[in-house]
Amino acid sequence: MQDRYLTVSALTKYIKRKFESDPHLKEVFLRGEISNFKHHSRGHMYLTIKDDKSRVNAVMFAGYNRYMKFTPENGMNVLIRGEIGVYEPHGQYQLYIHQMEPDGLGALYLAYEELKKKLTTEGLFDDHLKKPLPSYPRSIAVLTSPTGAAVRDILTTIDRRYPNVRVTVFPVLVQGQNAKTSIVQAIEKVNELNDYDVMIVGRGGGSIEELWAFNEEVVARAIAASDIPIISAVGHETDFTISDFVADYRAPTPTGAAEVAVPSQAEVAERIQNLRRRVQNVMDVQMNQAKEKLAQKQKSYAFRYPEQLMRQKEQELDRMYDQLQKASVQFMNQNQNDLTNIQKRLQQQHPEKSLRLAKQELVQTTKRMNRAMQQETKSKMQTYHELISKLTLLNPLETIKRGYAIPYSEQGTVVKSIRDVQPGDPMQVKVQDGVLDCQVWGMEEEDQNE
């Protein structure tokens, strides 16, 4: 009975073999929406493919996604080709993706739009970066396939329009995986040679896959970095590549590029002939105008009566000479008057005069100040003597001189009343010329009303 039970690993291996033996699961075409997308640092892509009712885990290893022309994103609808297998550690079946492209838009078209948007943001398509094409180039470099129809169209057109120019064909691959490297190296080589006035880079028409080398970012950046003007000539008029946008000029076809690169010799000759006719016309007009002016001069008074005109001019000269002399005298007189007036004003405003007036003013001011100080001093001295006299009258010593005395108690205070001392108390009496030591022998109060 125990042999009836399987291990999980054994069951998983059994299911895995069943998946591997089923031919319907070896190649699966699936349409769904991407979610849980993760691009691992080692290059593998892990994601979930879902619809509105179910989902399946999926993985796209780096070997398969290396050449994808777009970057998957969550929410993007995709078309997938792959196989179904079992991931044993988790016991889950999952989809191993071999090929993936956007559902609705082609992968190349999406990559084209992404690169166009990126380079537009960087400003590589800006008009101010476009270099002007030379009007009459001396040498042209043609970068294209040496065996294609494009090179024949370019060479034939240039030889027909402007055979004097030197043309050099630089063979490059124009389609395939190595085409972008071939084109970039050729552009860099032509710039290193620095012997060409303009460059034509292109090829004939084809599918978007065949033209894809001209949509590669490295090619676009090589064109943008070129010091030599580049004409892009890829495919037909309806084919627009990234190279067309970044080039200095976009020609609709290789033949159109040749027509833009060089002028038409016949057109140049016709242009020269037209210019010659215009110059001749201008010279004829100017010659006729000069003849008319000469005829008018010949009919003028001066030519018909030169002596009368000379006499008239002599009189005018005398009159003008007199006017000039008169004006000169008036001018000199006027200037002399102006000079005299200026000298008078200068004399009136001479610093020496101002200094003399200032000194006189200083002397007068000093005298006024001295008189004022003397009067003030006299007034203050009079006031001082009056105050001294008042103080003298109020001085107690002056009163004593008239026979009065001042009694002092033993404590040194002035005795003003009999109540300030007692019988037998010693006291001192200040007189004019000294102090008397006394003693109170008795006291008698006087009636204040008597």
Keywords:
450 residues; alpha/beta; five-stranded mixed beta barrel; five-stranded parallel β-sheet; 13 strands
Would you mind describing this structure in some detail?
There is one protein chain. With 450 residues, this protein is an alpha/beta fold. It has helices spanning 8-21, 62-65, 107-122, 149-161, 179-193, 217-225, 242-246, 254-261, 265-298, 301-304, 306-348, 351-394, 396-401; strands at residues 28-39, 45-50, 55-60, 77-87, 92-102, 139-144, 166-171, 198-203, 230-234, 249-250, 406-409, 426-431, 434-439. The protein has a 5-stranded mixed barrel. It has a 5-stranded parallel beta sheet with strand order 7-6-8-9-10, sandwiched between helices. The protein has a 3-stranded antiparallel beta sheet with strand order 11-12-13, with no helix packed on it. α7 (242-246) links the parallel β9 and β10. α4 (149-161) runs parallel beside α8 and α5 (179-193) runs parallel beside α6 (217-225). It is flat, with a radius of gyration of 63 Å. The mean pLDDT is 89.
